[in-house]
């Protein structure tokens, strides 16, 4: 399928940019030399029968230094990254392959169950579509793209428990940042888990292990950095209505 993305914001930077003067790996990963991930990346991007398409918010790379998209791009050959806030129909014809929208929406089917119930011929060479951004951004992107996607895409998801808080980086070896719910994972881990199920002839397990190894190394570097960094206490954010109520109470007290 040909997707037509919205143009990205001018001047978007990538997550691999580093401050002047800091040594940067030029061999492949583009990260600071002290946290180079080249030894963990595959020698060449991994080929897959699944076409992976990621619609990422224009700010996903510029404002998220922990984005896994740069590593994902260096890990898979059959990958397309599209900057934008929604997907639009293109002038090209739709390809016959199944398009799987991997997003934890209420009506999404469990991906493993979908694979078991779908004949191999009907799920050969699928297109796996993901939305990348903050969870708020991803929800907005999903809602904006749904009028187009609902006519052909199959909504699927990995198991997510909305009743349980997600892990933080210090509670899981693959957690890039604090997740809102149990089962919510980074884009790279979501792709790895999905490819394990979608790739034929057991190849998915090998691809998953390679990608997870890269992600595990990234998280280990970040966790080590945070352990030696003094953490400032976070200021508790208050809602505007609470602040307004307090101001009204103080004003009433002065009038008494």
UniProtKB/TrEMBL annotation:
Domain DTW, first and last residues per copy: 21-227
Alphabetic keyword roster: S-adenosyl-L-methionine, Transferase, tRNA processing
The protein's enzyme class: transferase
GO biological process: tRNA processing
Keyword Transferase applies: yes
Biased composition, class Basic residues, residue ranges: 230-242
Annotated EC: 2.5.1.25
Reactions catalysed according to its record: a uridine in tRNA + S-adenosyl-L-methionine = a 3-[(3S)-3-amino-3-carboxypropyl]uridine in tRNA + S-methyl-5'-thioadenosine + H(+)
Highest taxon in the source lineage: Eukaryota
Record family assignment: Belongs to the TDD superfamily. DTWD2 family.
Protein name: tRNA-uridine aminocarboxypropyltransferase
Organism annotation: Oryza sativa subsp. japonica
């Amino acid at each position: 399928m040909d997707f037509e993305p919205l143009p990205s914001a001018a001047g978007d930077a990538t997550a691999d940019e580093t401050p002047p003067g800091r040594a940067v790996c030029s061999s492949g990963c583009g990260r600071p030399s002290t946290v180079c991930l080249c030894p963990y990346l595959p020698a060449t991007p991994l080929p897959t029968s699944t076409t992976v398409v990621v619609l990422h918010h224009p700010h996903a790379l510029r404002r998220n230094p922990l984005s896994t998209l740069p590593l994902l791009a260096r890990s898979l050959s059959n990958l397309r990254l599209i900057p934008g806030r929604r997907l639009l129909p293109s002038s090209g014809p739709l390809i016959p392959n199944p398009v799987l929208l991997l997003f934890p929406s209420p009506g999404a089917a469990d991906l493993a169950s979908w694979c078991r119930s779908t004949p191999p011929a009907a799920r050969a060479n699928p297109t796996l579509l993901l939305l990348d951004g903050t969870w708020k951004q991803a929800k907005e992107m999903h809602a904006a793209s749904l009028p187009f996607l609902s006519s052909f895409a199959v909504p699927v998801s990995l198991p997510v428990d909305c009743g349980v808080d997600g892990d933080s980086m210090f509670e899981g070896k693959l957690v890039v940042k604090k997740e809102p719910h149990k089962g919510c994972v980074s884009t790279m881990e979501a792709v790895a888990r999905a490819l394990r199920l979608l790739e034929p002839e057991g190849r998915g397990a090998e691809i998953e292990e390679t990608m997870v190894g890269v992600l595990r190394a990234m998280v280990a570097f970040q966790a080590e950095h945070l352990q030696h960094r003094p953490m400032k206490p976070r200021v508790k954010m208050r809602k505007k209505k609470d602040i307004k109520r307090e101001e009204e109470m103080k004003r009433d007290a002065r009038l008494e």
